[in-house]
Amino acid sequence: MGNETKQLSIIGGGLAGALLAILLTQRGWSVDVFERRGDPRIGGYAGGRSINLALAERGLHALRQAGADVDVLKQAVMMRGRFVHPLHGTPSLQRYGRDDSEVIYSISRGELNIVLLDIAESHGARLHFDHALERADFADHTAYFRHHDAEITHAFRALIGADGAGSTLRAQIAKVQPLGERSEGLGHGYKELEIPPSLAGDFRIEPNALHIWPRGHYMCIALPNDERTFTVTLFMPREGSYPSFAQVQTGADAQALFARDFPDALVLIPQLQHDYDANPVGTLATLYLDRWHLGGQAVLLGDAAHAMVPFHGQGMNCAFEDCVALAEQLASTPELAQAFAAFEEQRKPNAEAIQQMALENYIEMRDKVDDAAFLLQRQLELALQERHPGRFVPHYSMVTFMRIPYAVALQRSDLQRELLVEATHGLTTLDGVDWPALDAAVLAKLSPLLP
Ligand code: FAD
Ligand code: E1W
């Protein structure tokens, strides 16, 4: 390190920024965090986007490293599986894992952010709220922030961009070094609605599940909140034939759509028309960069580096894995430029893998989860997991319950899908499966996974 101080400046005190501040202060760094919004512990949380998120093993593991898991889980609601609501037919729970040791958690974005900020501050991180990065001068190591009506300058050693999908730091880096930025819009948007508690104060539908109403090219989901509400998200094309956001513009239009396509959800959302009119249509896109850092002066992580569509529930989980990887790299590699380069090399292939899997999962969620061929393949996945423990692991489990690199999960899922499709072709039950041939194919294609 020479005589340079161990000082780092984080842009963005959202999920990744707050967690990274903990991990770095724990390792002896002096950390400043600059957050555009006000302190959520004072004014209430102003996060415009989805109010709850699914936390899985990757994110939970990072929270354990930061000593934040216990406080976060206190406010979480366990989700055992997806509860699928077909348009016709009986809703039912499809378990995510083998038992209650394989579950995910619904957590409030605001509460999670507050837990992380409190711990970061208790470790000595300096939190600067209402400080929006406006400009970074990399020639003289000065960052310029908008603080109410004033401009604040800050001399930095290095800037870490945890400022989300619309990252200002990314734009500032791109002015001095092209990043090869490419953003692919999905063409679909989302709108958030709320299911309040029942009159008796209880959850109005099964609390320990992620609810899905698949409808082909569009869908609704609902995640439970610990105050016994659910946040419902409608995902739908922005343009095109009915239904799209272009055609379902008003609360009254939404009422009619729900009456036709989501009748069992409609009765649960008394404020549907109001919520629909009041809330904006959110944007969904995948962001790809060729480079994540500027020498030893700046590096991007989380959504700022690799925003993804939300359909695997892994954006935050992946951002938290980034934070652990960067903190570890900084601990083992004294030269910042080298540490940032090694971090990018380690994480970029994995970010790209989960970006791809998240896109693929949209089609699965909205179109396949109530389909017989899909369900038969899930049944076969479970059977093969029993027959080949540690070798055949269901796709969802590799992403959600394990910490193997996303790129490895993607590669193995592709191989496994070929086996599943081939073995169930033309079948309606597992009775006709040629087990000896399938077992042999599993052994030939898949190496053992667990250490
Ligand atoms: P953010 O959480 O966006 O934080 C960025 C922070 O930087 C913010 O606090 C912002 O105010 C601040 N900031 C921005 N610009 C500036 C500036 N110029 N100066 C200073 N500060 C600035 N992920 C999951 O793991 N599970 C889920 O279930 C899930 N569901 C989702 C559902 C939806 C509808 C969406 C859109 C996303 C979902 N995600 C989910 C993804 C998740 O929200 C993101 O991946 C995660 O928030 C990324 O964290 P981040 O810290 O990189 O960015
Ligand atoms: C999860 C926004 C969001 C968050 C999620 C998930 C989904 C669909 C969505 C993926 C999933 C938890 N998923 N659920 N069931 N099968 N795959 O696991 O976070 Cl849309």
Task: Give an overview of the whole structure.
The protein has helices at residues 15-26, 40-43, 57-65, 69-74, 109-122, 168-176, 251-261, 263-266, 272-278, 303-306, 315-332, 336-368, 372-387, 395-400, 406-424, 435-445, and strands spanning 7-11, 30-34, 52-55, 77-79, 81-84, 92-95, 104-108, 126-128, 132-137, 142-147, 150-155, 159-161, 182-195, 210-214, 219-224, 230-237, 282-288, 293-294, 298-300. It is of the alpha/beta class and 451 residues long. Among the domains are: 3-47 and 110-182 and 285-360, FAD/NAD(P)-binding domain, CATH 3.50.50.60; 371-445, no CATH class. The strands form four sheets. The chain has a seven-stranded mixed sheet with strand order 6-5-14-15-16-13-17, sandwiched between helices. Strands 8-2-1-12-19-18 form a six-stranded mixed sheet, sandwiched between helices. A hairpin with a 2-residue loop joins strand 10 and strand 11. Helix 7 (251-261) crosses helix 9 (272-278) and helix 11 runs antiparallel to helix 12 (336-368). The model has no long low-confidence stretch (mean pLDDT 96). Flavin-adenine dinucleotide (FAD) binds next to helix 1, strand 3, strand 9, helix 10 and helix 11. Ligand E1W binds next to helix 12.
